[in-house]
Amino acid sequence: MDKYKRIVFFTGAGISVESGIPTYRGAGGVWKDYNYQDYACQEAFSRNPEKVWDFHDQRRALIKSCEPNLAHRIIAKIQLQQPKTCIISQNIDGLHQRAGADRVLELHGSIWRLRSQESSLIVENFETPLKERQCGDNAWWRPDIIWFGDPLNQETINLALSALKKCDLLICIGTSAVVYPAAQMPEIAINNGADTIEINPQRTPISHLFQRCLRDSASQALSSLFPEFAES
Ligand code: APR
């Protein structure tokens, strides 16, 4: 692994499973119990903002009670030692940052930020659960999350694409690779000649694109790839 100078870690919900946060799909997945059309799209929020807020307050409380796991910590240590390391995550949970990573491209936003519906105002470090959910007479704060049907932030996409084009190793961890445009991003690194590893206990629709597939949990696979960063 020493030969790689520009690693991109591309992560999904699977990396946080060992912290106790459920995935979205598969057994125990969030979208099994909650229909995303009622909880995770602008139409649902416009219809019933309180219901969508309650759901996100619950999610925030669960995430707050969880700690980053060994996989998050290994990645943070690698980034600290090799500053050209890039973390691109679909996760909104902030666990990479809590493990010590300081540059994370959050493709799908963050549950720890608020966005005003009536202006471009973004608020971080808000008190949770939020007491005043409205930011104007007819306007609401909403989580700064990319819900189904929302466009991704163009600046974040540009930074992610640039990192994927330049990386020498792509390690894709814990994503089912079914949500676009995120699912097609790994291919950019592959087309630009990077070496590639997928870490996922299950096969995914993009598994065939990778040189190596480690069918293991995130922390076990990363510990075997980077034993010098794994803790005893
Ligand atoms: N280690 C690594 N991977 C794991 C582990 C583990 N311990 N446990 C499960 N996985 C894998 C599953 O096999 C699955 O492929 O994690 C993946 C999780 O898939 P999803 O639940 O679909 O999560 P993700 O790909 O991140 O979802 C993408 O969908 O709903 C939207 O916006 C949401 O960002 C999310 C996007």
SSE inventory with pairings:
Layout: E1 7-11, H1 30-33, H2 36-39, H3 42-47, H4 49-64, H5 70-81, E2 86-89, H6 95-98, E3 104-106, E4 109-116, E5 122-124, E6 141-145, H7 154-166, E7 169-173, H8 186-191, E8 195-199, E9 212-214, H9 218-225
Parallel strand pairs: 1-2, 1-7, 2-3, 7-8, 8-9
Antiparallel strand pairs: 4-5, 4-6
This protein binds adenosine-5-diphosphoribose.
3D architecture notes:
The chain has 232 residues and is an alpha/beta fold. The protein has 2 domains: 1-21 and 68-108 and 152-232, Rossmann fold (3-Layer(aba) Sandwich), CATH 3.40.50.1220; 22-65 and 111-145, SIR2/SIRT2 'Small Domain', CATH 3.30.1600.10. The chain has 9 helices and 9 strands. It has helices at residues 30-33, 36-39, 42-47, 49-64, 70-81, 95-98, 154-166, 186-191, 218-225, and strands at 7-11, 86-89, 104-106, 109-116, 122-124, 141-145, 169-173, 195-199, 212-214. The strands form 2 sheets. The protein has a 6-stranded parallel β-sheet, sandwiched between helices. A 3-stranded antiparallel β-sheet has the order 5-4-6, covered by helices on one side. 38% of the residues are buried. Adenosine-5-diphosphoribose (APR) binds at residues 12-15, 17-18, 23-26, 29, 90, 108, 173-176, 179, 199-202, 204, 217-218.
Q: Which value, in Å, is the CA radius of gyration?
A: 18 Å
Question: Ranges with pLDDT <50 over ≥5 residues?
Answer: none
Residue-averaged pLDDT, rounded? Answer: 95
- Annotated CATH homologous superfamily of the largest domain: TPP-binding domain
| Cross-sheet strand order for the largest sheet | 3-2-1-7-8-9
Order of helices and strands: EHHHHHEHEEEEHEHEEH
Number of DSSP strands? Answer: 9
List all distinct small molecules, including ions and cofactors, that are bound in this structure.
Answer: adenosine-5-diphosphoribose
Strand percentage? 15-25%
**How many domains make up the 3D coordinates?**
2
What is the CATH topology descriptor of the largest domain? Rossmann fold
CATH class of the largest domain: Alpha Beta
**Roughly what percent helix?**
25-40%
Estimate the global geometry from the Cα principal axes. Answer: globular
